[in-house]
């Protein structure tokens, strides 16, 4: 999701080198450029189209931006797909009419680059100085706080769990769950880890705080979690699959790819391992 945000920031700056860094060599781009329904394959061709588009159109949103991204979320129906919803304000040349559009783009992201990018848009009225509209656990009315843990053992292994329920059913991830009313982050993390893995842990510092948003086929928010991941170390107990998980494993941080964890898990684990080296347990 950070990669998609980076693409739109680069487009707003007119930074073609930064745009280039977002795409893979064999990328496919569909219906992305102004007044152009073409499909283009290969980084060189795609960058030529971006260069022409950025030369021809200027941004007409507040601050000279062309794109204002309202939401970036994973698409539940496809592994690796991300959807960005946006508003666009553009002017062709110095004296052309200003156009305002609302739309969304779907991105297939693999190995840290965009492999496929396709867009759908529609004209809207004058946006003026406005910004895009703001965005139970299942189709919630507000974001839900989740807690998770990177449990680093004395043998420098990481505890992973295979989820039993959605989201991420049948996928490997870090252990964790939902914070309960009146519960501190540390207490909630320790409780969830004991319930899911059978381990009693010492809860250390926060590794990272981030959003996980998943939308359905109608672009409605099905899940929205604000996740707080802590560095932890096991104190006692026996590793075993508990509530909400179907399996547990000890993984080498260098071998996470074999568990097909998402890219964010890899980033959080790498940061936690580095923190663990200097943490005074």
Q: Which structural class should the secondary elements be placed in?
A: alpha+beta
**What's the architecture of the largest domain in CATH terms?**
Alpha-Beta Complex
Q: Name the CATH class of the largest domain.
A: Alpha Beta
**Any low-confidence stretches, pLDDT <50, length ≥5?**
129-135
Specify the helix fraction band. Answer: 10-25%
Please state the average pLDDT score.
Answer: 89
Helix count, per DSSP? Answer: 5
Q: From the alpha carbons, calculate the radius of gyration and give it in angstroms.
A: 22 Å
Q: Which shape, going by the Cα principal axes?
A: elongated
Helix and strand sequence = HHEEHEEEEEEEEEHEEEH
CATH-derived topology of the largest domain: Nucleoside Triphosphate Pyrophosphohydrolase
Number of spatially distinct domains: 2
Distance between the termini: 33 Å
- Portion of residues in beta strands equals 35-45%
Please summarize the sheet with the most strands. 11 strands, mixed
Q: How many distinct beta strands?
A: 14
Query: Which homologous superfamily in CATH is the superfamily of the largest domain?
Result: Nucleoside Triphosphate Pyrophosphohydrolase
Q: In words, what does this structure look like?
A:
With 281 residues, this protein is of the alpha+beta class. It has two domains: 2-123, Nuclear Transport Factor 2, Chain: A (Roll), CATH 3.10.450.50; 144-278, Nucleoside Triphosphate Pyrophosphohydrolase, CATH 3.90.79.10. The chain is 22% helix and 42% strand. Strands 1, 2, 3, 4, 5, 6, 7, 8, 11, 12 and 13 form an eleven-stranded mixed β-sheet that branches. Strands 10-9-14 form a three-stranded antiparallel β-sheet, with no helix packed on it. A hairpin with a 5-residue loop joins strand 5 (81-92) and strand 6. Helix 1 (2-13) runs antiparallel to helix 2 (16-22). It is elongated, with a radius of gyration of 22 Å.
